[in-house]
Amino acid sequence: MNGLDFRLLFACCLALCAASPPAHARTEKAPATVVVQDAFVDLRSGPGRGFPATYSVERNATIALLRQRTDWIKVRTDNGREGWVNRSQLERTLTPGGAPVQVAGPAPEARTGHHWEVGLGTGDFGGANVISVAGAYALTPNLLVRADVNQLLGNFSNGWLGTAGIAHVFMPEWRVSPFVGIGGGVVTISPKATLVQAEDRTDTTAYAGLGVRGFLTNRFLLQAEYRSYVVFTSRDENEEIDEWTVAFTYFF
Amino acid sequence: MDRGLHVLLLTALAAVAALPGSAAAQAAGQPTGDPSALPAQQPQVVEPAVKRREVEPPALDTENFEAGVFVGTVSIEDFGSSLLYGGRIAYHFTEDLFAEATVGTSKAGKTSYEELSGSANLLTDSERQFTYYDLALGWNALPGEVFFGGKHAMPSAVYFTLGAGSTNFAGDDHFTVALGAGLRVLANDWIAVHLDVRDHMFESDLFGKNKLTQNLQVGLGVTAFF
Predict the structure, then answer these.
(1) Which domains does chain A have, with CATH numbers?
(2) Interfacial A residues in 50-109 facing B (CB < 8 Å)
(3) What residues make up the domain containing B91?
(4) pTM for the complete prediction?
(5) ipTM for the whole complex
């Protein structure tokens, strides 16, 4: 095939691709519908229990599911009324085929069956304030692979700390469970400009820690942890630093 | 005789020609005509013609993220009030709780001393930049509706936030606790308007003595749920 033929073929392919409708337009389909099984279902004006119920749908009515925000689903009735319905009420509806409806949301199984955790925390790192963003992946309910990024804000110096490590949760099915962890990372300390003219320094560090975590709901954990850090400095002696943190963690 | 031979030959040919057809017809007819010929170990089963439909959970569009921008004013302690702008992104865990990350920036003005003395500048131009981030937890405390006239009602919520973060000002990063309250009004299903007040509190030793500074911000913002 010579160059001209190839270009012609390429141009034809481009033209065909451009002429065909975009993927999302082709796959767009009518919203899923369900049949109400409760005596009635309240439609609220907003996605929350504090919003007023503006309309009720009776048993055996068909409603279309439009969108979901947290535990609330926006629905449309046959006569065009729209409103928000709680997930728990939708779980007592049936599909047109007669099967129970499943809507994504938290369940008690998520406490031991989840994989991802994301948390925001704060605490104290050797006298400096810590702001922490942490993530974890549960290889098994007992074993977590963790990583976090922390900003350190002290009276005399500021810095950043990043670590990665593993943790063992002793009783993941308990409401409150102890855990232990080890890991390593990098810490950068910059003394405050107003105090001393010292250089920034970056060192590697390792930690061992222990803590407790408790389930607040089927979505949230509260985690308190103590870590003992050893900073491998370029000076004669290594530095030991204690860290205490509390983190609010969301799991999914 | 010749003629008789011909008739006999034709009759024989016709009989031979007819024979395979009848045998085939017999063979084809046999299974249906004689049920007793079926093997005894294969009972006749009625296969249902309708297959049960595979039920898929409805694929709903979940919209728990909210992102947007805001503009407002911030009163930086000792440095007057300045224009502030920034962005926010939030994730709604439940109808009550959300996490929010906010960044904002402003440029501090001059202290009274700098204004009166005329020439003494306490901070350089770049040190006057006031930039912060904070990570907060929010609580939708008062959900309800905002009414415009007699016919229009919009879902709304009064919320409170508590966050921690860092403020870069006067050449240093300061650990900052941010307390906030706001009103969120949903213009439609996915656009919200925010009016909020926030107090950024951090310790500063800029004037020699360590003190807790209060930096109040008022902002008006627009966000989209996605």
Answers:
(1) 29-102 (2.30.30.40), 110-251 (2.40.160.20)
(2) 50-52, 65-74, 95, 97, 99, 101-104
(3) 65-225
(4) 0.73
(5) 0.72
